[in-house]
């Protein structure tokens, strides 16, 4: 940790920290949370605050149990259990927090159950009003809303009611237990924000709805990502309001935080929890923090049921067909599965062509990676490096990366032309380490451009939903530009000439979908433009659909011909640039710099340059940058991580360096029949024996089984994932390797025909 560099807006003594340790569990029925403050302090928290964050600590050295305040008799009051005990403790705590806050210190309170927030928040609210004349805002991070009134609560436990008392939605008579809470100790519902909700009582839902309280559930986190949620939350509060952050540990998924009495699956990751605190801190508005509901007494039980303990941690890199299916299939009782992917959704790739032209909506091709039914944990990030010897991965978080889903390409926009704020934002991802027992690499691949000039910057690819979205927008833009009365005929022809490079299933299906949408929908909207529409498929091979039977491929070509789609085989592409082609006949377009920005010029060796509205590029796959860079360096690894495959009489310890074995043509990681990553000894070893990495597997588009030629399809990836999950679940990875069973191939060729 580093010393804080953010200048606090509302703390006159920002380098001073008031620490209050509250060993109180009376707001709920499970004992153990009273031991949490001491456990945190004994773990070195105070020393870290002093040494690493350079705070001047104001701490009385006590964990307050408030036993002297406990009443002899504490009957239920208005359905509340232990009302007088909770009232006495929170009133005393309010005074303690108030004393720190009025001095302009940051206040850290260690609980204890969440009922103590009645004391902490009332204390800061009063102090800030007196010192600054301002109201405070509260960010309540919790799986539960804790806004029940005594009348709506089913349990009567007061740790489910603090927000109701703090907002005035629940109140007591002056002589009743909570009559001590005055107006200057309360907060406004308009300055209250929830994050992480996923277990809300019926009465609480009604309260949230009727009072318009801003609440972000785990559904919102799944849908928008934690970065966007924090932007919206902080935007709601505003930049001129002091913030009290009240963090219930059960907001985290029990996979990360099992030691809590009210665990609810489907919660925040540890990284997302950190990110919330970081974002609030970076505003400079943070004045106080509560950390509550940690229950050390549940550690062994919770670990046995929900977290790592004796389970191996399996880290899966990638959320495509291989990674997503594997993560969902691993037994959670045997493995702690962590899925790491920059993309928070799984893409059903067969539907991408349909979404790109508008036949289907984008959400039909997407499935959120995170859900309450997940059998794994999810981290939004990408692997930057891996240390096989230490079994550790360096992960860069991508929560705030605006280019996620674009596969590093932005057709029609060069990298240096991107808005400066987006380039800065994309570089802010923080690195953190993640250990593993087993690692599964399923990072996928990128579209192969063969280094042809201009393709990466100007072509459109079809690997993700964001790619499909860009194609749809460009398609509509071409038609809208062409229909303008100021658009010359020559430009109309180029705008409505659509080129698809690649005659495989992706290129063919997109061409068919494009022809369908033109014929069935766009013809009705732009009838005057139909004579100018041209769709052309280019391929370097002498036929399309090479993986299909020759008769089926021929049938597809004949069908395309009947539909007006031109197929040009044996065409080698030479380049793609913005502007008009260098051919005669452009007429009044010559020299028109403004108009030249609308079209592309596709260059090939067989004919003159061709003007196009857009070019969709689908010519095969190239290895992911993680495979190219992170897995290209030589490394050392202990004998426990390496298993020799050759007959040479050498132990792994005697070999200085290893490299991950790559396929010579595709650059993909090579594996054995059991999907384990194969190694080569570094060049400095004369015998160059082969080996495998124990507990490291690779599958999907980024890997190939040595000596096989399985197609890089969803079918192969899914079968490998299910095979590996079954083997790992049974613990018999060394018996009978993977064997692909083809279920056939199919390609849509338009007008409900398939090949």
Automatic annotation (TrEMBL):
What cofactors are annotated for this protein? Mn(2+)
Where's the FAD/NAD(P)-binding domain?
Answer: 313-627
Which pathway does the database say it acts in?
Nitrogen metabolism; urea cycle; L-ornithine and urea from L-arginine: step 1/1
Q: Name one GO cellular component term.
A: mitochondrion
Q: Which EC number(s) does the record attach to this protein?
A: 3.5.3.1
Q: Which reaction does it catalyse?
A: L-arginine + H2O = urea + L-ornithine
Q: Which domain of life is it from?
A: Eukaryota
Pfam short name (any one): Arginase
The Gene Ontology terms for molecular function here are: arginase activity; metal ion binding; NADH dehydrogenase activity
Listed under GO biological process in this entry are: arginine metabolic process
Q: Matching InterPro entries, A to Z?
A: Arginase, FAD/NAD-bd_sf, FAD/NAD-binding_dom, NDH-2, Ureohydrolase, Ureohydrolase_dom_sf, Ureohydrolase_Mn_BS
What does the UniProt keyword field contain? Arginine metabolism, FAD, Flavoprotein, Hydrolase, Manganese, Metal-binding, NAD, Oxidoreductase
Under the heading NCBIfam families, the entry gives: rocF_arginase
The record's family statement is: Belongs to the arginase family. Belongs to the NADH dehydrogenase family.
What is the official name of this protein in its record? arginase
Species in which this protein is naturally found: Oleoguttula mirabilis
- Give the taxonomic lineage as stored in the record: Eukaryota, Fungi, Dikarya, Ascomycota, Pezizomycotina
């Amino acid at each position: 940790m580093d010393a804080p560099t953010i200048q606090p807006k509302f703390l006159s003594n920002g380098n001073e920290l008031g620490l209050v340790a509250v060993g109180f569990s009376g707001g709920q029925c499970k004992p153990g949370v009273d031991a949490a403050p001491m456990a945190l302090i004994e773990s070195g928290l105070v020393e870290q605050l002093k040494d690493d964050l350079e705070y001047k600590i104001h701490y009385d050295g006590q964990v307050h149990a408030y036993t002297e305040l406990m009443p002899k008799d504490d009957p239920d009051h208005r359905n509340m259990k232990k009302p007088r005990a909770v009232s006495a403790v929170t009133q005393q705590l309010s005074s303690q927090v108030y004393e720190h806050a009025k001095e302009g210190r940051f206040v850290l309170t260690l609980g204890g159950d969440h009922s103590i927030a009645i004391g902490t928040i009332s204390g800061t609210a009063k102090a800030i009003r007196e010192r600054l004349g301002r109201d405070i805002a509260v960010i309540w991070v919790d799986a539960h809303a804790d806004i029940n009134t005594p009348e709506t609560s089913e349990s009567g436990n007061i740790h489910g009611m603090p927000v109701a008392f703090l907002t005035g939605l629940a109140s007591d008579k002056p002589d009743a237990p909570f009559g001590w809470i005055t107006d200057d100790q309360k907060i406004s519902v308009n300055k209250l924000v929830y994050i992480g909700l996923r277990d809300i009582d019926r009465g609480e839902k009604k309260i949230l709805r009727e009072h318009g309280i801003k609440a972000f559930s785990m559904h919102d986190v799944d849908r928008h990502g934690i970065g966007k949620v924090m932007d919206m939350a902080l935007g709601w509060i505003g930049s001129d309001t002091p913030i009290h952050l009240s963090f219930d540990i059960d907001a985290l998924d029990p996979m990360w935080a099992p030691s809590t009495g009210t665990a609810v699956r489907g919660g925040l990751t540890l990284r997302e929890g950190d990110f919330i605190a970081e974002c609030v801190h970076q505003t400079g508005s943070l004045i106080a923090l509560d950390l509550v509901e940690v229950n050390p007494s549940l550690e062994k039980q919770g670990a046995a049921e929900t977290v790592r303990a004796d389970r191996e941690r399996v880290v899966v890199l990638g959320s495509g067909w291989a990674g997503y299916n594997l993560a969902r299939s691993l037994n959670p009782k045997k493995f702690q599965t962590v899925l790491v992917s920059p993309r928070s959704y799984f893409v059903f790739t067969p539907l991408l062509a349909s979404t790109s032209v508008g036949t289907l909506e984008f959400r039909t091709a997407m499935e959120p990676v995170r859900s309450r039914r997940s059998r794994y944990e999810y981290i939004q990030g990408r692997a930057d490096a891996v240390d096989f010897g230490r079994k550790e991965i360096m992960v860069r978080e991508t929560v705030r990366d605006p280019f996620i889903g674009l596969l590093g390409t932005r057709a029609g926009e060069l990298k240096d032309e991107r808005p400066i704020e987006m380039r800065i934002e994309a570089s802010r991802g923080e690195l953190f380490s993640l250990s593993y027992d087993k690692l599964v690499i399923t990072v996928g691949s990128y579209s192969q451009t063969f280094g042809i000039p201009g393709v990466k910057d100007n072509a459109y690819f079809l690997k993700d939903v964001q790619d499909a979205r860009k194609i749809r927008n460009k398609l509509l833009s071409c038609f809208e530009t062409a229909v303008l009365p100021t658009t010359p005929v020559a430009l109309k022809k180029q705008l409505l000439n659509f080129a698809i490079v690649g005659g495989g299933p992706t290129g063919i299906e997109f061409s068919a979908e494009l022809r369908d949408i033109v014929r069935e929908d766009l013809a009705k909207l732009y009838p005057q433009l139909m004579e100018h529409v041209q769709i052309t498929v280019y391929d370097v091979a002498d036929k399309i659909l090479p993986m299909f039977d020759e008769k089926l491929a021929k049938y597809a070509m004949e069908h395309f011909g009947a539909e007006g789609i031109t197929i040009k085989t044996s065409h080698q592409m030479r380049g793609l640039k913005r502007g008009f082609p260098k051919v005669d006949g452009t007429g009044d377009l010559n020299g028109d710099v403004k108009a030249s920005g609308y079209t592309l010029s596709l260059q090939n060796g067989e004919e003159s340059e061709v003007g196009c509205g857009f070019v969709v590029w689908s010519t095969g796959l190239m290895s992911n940058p993680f495979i190219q860079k992170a897995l290209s360096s030589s490394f050392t690894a202990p004998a426990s991580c390496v298993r020799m495959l050759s007959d040479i009489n050498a132990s792994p310890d005697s070999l200085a360096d290893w490299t991950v074995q790559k396929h010579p043509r595709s650059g993909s990681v090579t594996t054995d029949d059991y999907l384990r990553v194969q190694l080569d000894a570094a060049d400095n070893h004369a015998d160059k024996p082969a080996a495998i990495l124990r507990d490291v597997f690779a599958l999907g588009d980024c890997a190939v089984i040595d000596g096989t030629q399985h197609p890089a399809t969803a079918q192969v990836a899914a079968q490998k994932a299910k095979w590996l999950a079954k083997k790992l679940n049974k613990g018999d990875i060394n018996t009978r390797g993977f064997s692909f069973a083809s279920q056939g191939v199919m390609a849509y060729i338009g007008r409900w025909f398939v090949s």
